[in-house]
UniProtKB/TrEMBL annotation:
Zn(2+) binds at residues 306, 308, 311, 337. InterPro entries: ArchSynthase1/Queuine_TRR, TGT, TGT-like_sf, tRNA_ribo_trans-like. This is Queuine tRNA-ribosyltransferase. The active site is at 92 (proton acceptor), 268 (nucleophile). Substrate binds at residues 92-96, 146, 191, 218. Catalyzes the base-exchange of a guanine (G) residue with the queuine precursor 7-aminomethyl-7-deazaguanine (PreQ1) at position 34 (anticodon wobble position) in tRNAs with GU(N) anticodons (tRNA-Asp, -Asn, -His and -Tyr). Catalysis occurs through a double-displacement mechanism. The nucleophile active site attacks the C1' of nucleotide 34 to detach the guanine base from the RNA, forming a covalent enzyme-RNA intermediate. The proton acceptor active site deprotonates the incoming PreQ1, allowing a nucleophilic attack on the C1' of the ribose to form the product.
Length: 376
């Protein structure tokens, strides 16, 4: 059971509000998915993540395949039971992780040969094996294997990798036609690098296959913001209106709003959780580094306008002390705050879409976040 419906379409932009219905529940879009790479949102109990309003998280096929292993997860009841997350889970194919370990992998027509970053053992991912792995995990939304294209890259190399993504998309689609079930959905991934004609070509090709939803991949790999937004605009032209649209791996507040304005429904990024562990938090006045010396005797909360547990109970001075003392509590408190901020951001985005004030909201955020607008 998987269904997507648009409930409100902005009259000023391409932004829209919709719902994704799965057998586990309903997600209102636009939606941000926290990243639980190894089956956990780092430093956060699942119940707390859910209490902040999150209905869906992302886990990583590559990492779970290597450790603890998909057969163990299957034996222990599937990924939801294994990690104690009762809501919806999207698993990526592992292609990006393999891409990021470029010195340890080799791309072939059949798939990707790679060495484990854990123990150096050699492994192989094909379009079919990644689908089989995700089927065993029992995730609710599965991503097909693609080739994440770096930036910059020559036209010819980009074209070849895009063609390979298309070949793998067909293999994944055909596998799913033979093995589909009512509890899992599959999304295709558009590539094409930063070349307009290749993006158009890829968007047309991938959306010609009847996947349950479509993602735009290969962004946030070092390209300028204007170019990224242009690639989103090109891709959107060919993406069906009645299916979810997902941009993979982008996640600053401005990145998200810019993509929502262009018609995107789903997002994931490690930014709120990774930044928290590095001592940086999102606030109503922009980014704040808890490491700054001028906060050592500051009795105010991280953000006076925030109602999260951290801001209601702890001062900047105390949080700075915890961070420099490397006390584990600080990772929970800062991560909770950042996830609270992102949940509130998505609520405000939906309200702005309904009120036709999204572009105004973007300008207000840009005043504080423009200089920091880069996805890590």
């Amino acid at each position: 059971m998987f269904k997507f419906e648009v409930h409100y379409q902005s009259k000023k932009t391409q932004a829209r509000i919709g719902t994704i219905v799965t057998h586990r529940g309903v997600i209102e879009t636009p939606v941000f998915m926290p990243v639980g790479t190894q089956g956990t949102i780092k430093a956060m109990p699942p119940e707390v993540v859910n209490s902040l309003g999150y209905e869906i998280i992302l886990s990583n096929t590559y990492h779970l395949y290597l450790r603890p292993g998909v057969d163990i997860i299957k034996e222990l009841g599937g990924i939801h039971k294994f990690i104690n997350w009762k809501k919806i889970i999207l698993t990526d194919s592992g292609g990006f992780q393999v891409y990021s370990l470029s010195q340890f992998r080799k791309i072939t027509e059949e798939g990707i040969i790679f060495k484990s970053h854990i123990d150096g053992t050699e492994h192989f991912f094909s379009p079919v094996t990644t689908m089989e792995i995700q089927k065993k995990l029992r995730s609710d939304i599965m991503m097909v294997l693609d080739t994440c294209i770096p930036y910059p890259l020559s036209y010819e190399e980009t074209k070849n990798l895009t063609e390979l993504t298309h070949k793998w998309a067909i293999e994944s689609f055909e596998y799913w036609q033979r093995h589909k079930n009512e509890k899992q959905a599959v999304f295709g991934i558009i590539q094409g690098g930063m070349y307009e004609d290749l993006r158009k070509y890829s968007a047309k090709f991938v959306t010609s296959l009847e996947f349950d939803g479509y993602a735009i991949g290969g962004l946030s790999v070092g390209e300028p913001l204007e170019l990224r937004n242009h690639m989103i605009e090109i891709s959107i032209e060919y993406m069906p209106y009645n299916k979810p649209r997902y941009v993979m791996g982008i996640g600053t507040p401005l990145d998200i709003i810019d993509a929502v304005i262009r018609g995107i429904d789903m997002f994931d990024c490690v930014l709120p959780t990774r930044n928290a562990r590095r001592g940086t938090v999102f606030t109503s006045k922009g980014l704040l580094s808890i490491k700054n010396a001028n906060l050592k005797d500051d009795s105010s909360p991280l953000d006076p306008e925030c109602e999260c547990y951290t801001c209601r109970n702890y001062s900047r001075g105390y949080l700075r002390h915890l961070f420099h003392a490397k006390e584990l509590l600080v990772y929970f408190l800062l991560t909770l705050h950042n996830l609270f901020y992102y949940a509130k951001l998505m609520r405000h985005i939906k309200e702005a879409i309904k009120n036709e004030t999204l572009e105004i909201f973007r300008e207000e955020l840009a005043e504080y976040y423009f200089k920091n607008n880069s996805s890590e």
